[in-house]
Amino acid sequence: MIKRLISAVIGVPLIVFLVFIGGPYFVGAVMLIALLASIELGKILQRMGINDMQSFLYTGALLFPLLLSFEPSWLPHFFVFFVFSGVMISLSRYPESDYLDLSANFMSLLYIAFGFAHFILLRQMEQGMLLVGFAFSVIWMTDIGAFFIGTYLGKRPLFKEASPNKTIEGAIGGLACGILGGILFCVTVSNSKVGPIDNMSFLIVLTPFLSIAGQLGDLFESALKRRAKVKDASQLIPGHGGILDRFDSALWIIPLLYHALQTRISIFS
Hints:
Distance between the termini: 48 Å
Strand content: under 5%
Radius of gyration: 19 Å
Number of strands: 2
Largest sheet: 2 strands, antiparallel
Mean pLDDT: 87
Order of helices and strands: HHHHHHEEHHHH
Number of domains: 1
Number of helices: 10
Strand order of the largest sheet: 1-2
Low-confidence stretches: none
Shape: globular
């Protein structure tokens, strides 16, 4: 618990600072985090008996966030290029690498490279700093609520096959705290010199769905680790595990928030 608290005391202010300054520092941090997450996921794939295409995964983790920071409209073109690249890499390694390996690596690319690229897309939106802050408020409050409620009140398992320690009570506590965190962030910002925050009512309505998505992201990563028979993605962050262990919820919440906002803008603009 002490290691967990120390890592949080160091990590949370660092994330807040990077989100605040944005620009190349934020992009560089996202690229580094995406690369480390790809390395962790590659090792998980290996333990599952899947041949990880390292050059494919690592290049995607670096280039997707970098290119999208310059021009988001490049996304579909760049993805098509990567599809052909992945197929060629897979064919060059046949029969050691088969269709299952190729499919797993494509899913890993979507999971990591696309997921972290959305951090930059969200940050580049109008009031992007506040939107990323809102997302992390929901993420952190959901994690805190699920951890403490699950630890002290949890009795009924939520999804024993994927994560034996997660409980229904913890999930409900996480949802309640996530909603509270989102509301408090919106109200606090709107009553400060920074506010008001745009689309506040929409964000509040969206909050429970984001909290649920974050918990699904946590379960998804837990299922991967369970299949690979590992407790943590790595030991990079003392008390917390690896990058994937800390950003598993964010990889689901931030893309959902970005596309929900874009859909609203498209419909009502």
